[in-house]
Amino acid sequence: MLSNVKTHIHQEVATITFFHPKSNSLPGELLRELTYQITSAGNNPIVKVIIIKSEGDKTFCGGASFDDLIAIKNFEDGKKFFLTLAEVINAMRNVPKFIIARIQGKAVGGGVGLAASADYAFAVKDASIRLSELALGIGPFVVGPAVERKIGNSAFTSLTINPTVWKTAEWAREKGLYAEVVDSVAEMDAAIQSLAEKLAHSNPEAMAQLKKVMWSGTEHWDKLLVERAEMSGRFLLSEFTQKALKSLVTNK
Questions:
Q1: Please, what are the domains in the chain?
Q2: pTM of the model
């Protein structure tokens, strides 16, 4: 089955669902479609609130697609790939609608960035997180600003420096990445539906202004995340990262 992104609008709530057969990882094509559908929902006057979720019941998002990363052989292609992730984060930041994230399983790398870029994230108790980029020799440069904004520099540093260790969902809630952690997917879906319905009946102009206030101080991200994508693109071509990627493929 191929990866895809789908949007379903019901009672003024747009639910954007992404899927990739390899642990809901993020190839460039999927990221570009996510940006498009998030922006479209944000511009749709019918939509009052946006929910972002992934398919399946085990992994919310496995991070960047290793297949895409391994295929990159020059700086421009590397920069272009990481820009697709930057564009998703900026789309989530810029749309005038609140975004709720549904985290039904583990989140790695870019998946943590998606959770951090949402305005309110629900998670189940098994939705542990990890920023694995440094283990590949890259570093979480693109997702860094979004994650650090949510959890602070100390917690972000802890995640980044120890990239092979999982942090629990409760840890993520305590640090502010997750707004709520519940026991089951059913409980989470009920809570998301309840909040989405409340927001759909709230003043859209007030919510848009609140979102702008909440994201105040990030106006420079349009430029910053491009610079971060360039950093990642350069490190992707390093000897260390190329060996790490080949080792991952060999051991699969």
A1: 4-200 (3.90.226.10)
A2: 0.96
